[in-house]
Design goal:
Strand content: 15-25%
Shape: globular
Oligomer: single chain
Helix content: 25-40%
Radius of gyration: 17 Å
Length: 255
């Protein structure tokens, strides 16, 4: 992994060259979800392999507080706007003037804020695992932060709290940093703001996802967007689904 300073915060990232004989003059920036990392969200699910084999340069960072990036413990350090600027600064650091930006779950929320703040930097926006809750919700329940601070997994009874705590432990995450992240990254966009996103957008949500909210409802608010239903997949399994990958490749080819 490589690293760079984003306004004083040390962030880790990977930068992968295309592996296909037919290369495209395009970079895909990957922004992972809460409690995850570039490795868990994008490498282990074969996304990086899929995209580099399709001819794309792929850049994926570990969000602040996650993976091998610096851990911060104040919620204010994790606003969606600040984390969007992390992605923008990484693009600046690498000399990437424009890219297709793909985020999953919290990463999709970050990517949407990036598209609103810096529309000229995106050629396409790919929102996975986040639907109308970008507008009508404020991210994961605050109880997830409480779950990160619980003395152990054993004392938790709520299924969602248990799921996220178990995931965080499995990925050996910094639980205190994740609690701060949940409390700080709860910014929504209004319907009017979402309506200002003019870049071609794909909204992909699992049909069994009870976290994201409706993908078609969000897509209907974005002028140049379409929705893709990831059939039979919940929030965790939708990200690496084969049909999801194909839908993204087809979309990038069309727009």
């Amino acid at each position: 992994m490589q690293s760079f300073s984003s306004d004083g915060v040390n962030l880790a990232y990977i930068d992968l060259a295309p592996t296909s004989e037919v290369t495209r003059s395009e970079t895909v920036m990957l922004v992972h979800g809460f409690g995850s990392s570039h490795m868990v969200n994008w490498v282990n699910t074969q996304w990086t392999k899929t995209l580099t084999h399709a001819g794309y340069r792929v850049v994926a960072l570990d969000n602040r507080g996650h993976g091998q990036s610096e851990k911060l413990y104040e919620p204010a350090a994790y606003s969606s706007q600040i984390m969007a600027e992390d992605v923008r600064r990484l693009m600046d650091h690498l000399g990437v003037s424009q890219a297709a930006v793909m985020g999953y779950s919290m990463g999709a929320r970050i990517s949407a804020h990036l598209a609103l703040a810096h529309p000229d930097r995106l050629r396409a926006l790919l929102l996975g695992g986040l639907g109308i809750h970008l507008v009508e919700g404020v991210g994961l329940p605050l109880g997830i932060a409480d779950a990160m601070e619980a003395p152990s997994l054993d004392v938790l009874t709520d299924p969602m709290q248990r799921m996220f705590r178990a995931f965080a432990e499995a990925t050996k995450s910094d639980l205190r940093a994740l609690a701060a992240c949940i409390r700080g990254s709860r910014q929504t966009l209004t319907a009017a703001q979402v309506g200002q996103i003019a870049v071609p957008t794909l909204v992909s949500v699992g049909t069994k996802d009870d976290v994201a909210g409706s993908g078609p409802e969000l897509a209907a608010l974005i002028p140049n967007a379409e929705a893709f239903d990831i059939e039979g997949r919940d929030h965790n399994l939708a990200v690496g689904d084969k049909s999801h990958k194909q839908a993204v490749l087809d979309f990038l080819t069309r727009v």
